[in-house]
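PROTEIN DESIGN WORKSHEET
SECTION A - STRUCTURE
LENGTH: 173
TOKENS:
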């Protein structure tokens, strides 16, 4: 079953019914590595207007995801592979909670955000593979990016990430 490329890092399955196997994950990892944003997404929904958006997302270890919140929709995140922290912030950018996700017997591997809280992910492994589900359609204006965090690709990203890791260490101490 072919995967079809929509953009440099967004793909869809070419046939139905939809099945995902290890070869597709390997292809997504390669796409994430070569993407400037260090991520790749396989959309399981066919059209942006669909009411349910299901995605398989691969993040390369060096990814930066600008903290953001979704104003009118829940989001579920189901970790399939890798080691990642879900980080939550107050409105001023202070981290309030970090949950380390993994596949160990006592580790959480799913989280769901049901209200508009700023959040991001910090990747600790070479890759993270997760299934995300949210309500569609995607409307750009329903995602609010934190003004206190640098934009993706900005030169300040490395410093911001280092400061965030320090803040999180003191949060859990």
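SECTION B - SEQUENCE
RESIDUE ASSIGNMENT:
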């Amino acid at each position: 079953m072919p995967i079809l490329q929509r953009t440099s890092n967004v793909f869809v399955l070419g046939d139905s019914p939809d099945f995902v196997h290890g070869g597709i994950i390997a292809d997504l990892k390669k796409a994430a590595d070569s993407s400037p944003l260090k991520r790749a997404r396989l959309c399981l929904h066919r059209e942006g207007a669909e009411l349910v958006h299901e995605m398989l997302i691969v993040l390369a270890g060096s990814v930066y995801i600008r903290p953001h919140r979704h104003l009118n929709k829940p989001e579920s995140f189901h970790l399939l592979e890798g080691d990642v922290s879900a980080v939550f912030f107050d409105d001023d950018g202070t981290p309030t909670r970090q949950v380390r996700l993994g596949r160990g017997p006592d580790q959480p591997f799913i989280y769901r955000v049901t209200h508009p809280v700023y959040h991001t992910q910090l990747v600790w492994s070479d890759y993270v593979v997760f299934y995300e589900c949210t309500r569609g359609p995607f409307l750009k204006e329903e995602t609010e990016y934190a003004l206190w965090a640098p934009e993706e690709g900005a030169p300040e990203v490395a410093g911001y990430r280092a400061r965030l890791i320090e803040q999180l260490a003191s949060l859990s101490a």
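SECTION C - NOTES
The first strand starts at residue 3 and ends at 5.
The CA atoms of residues 3 and 13 lie 4 Å apart.
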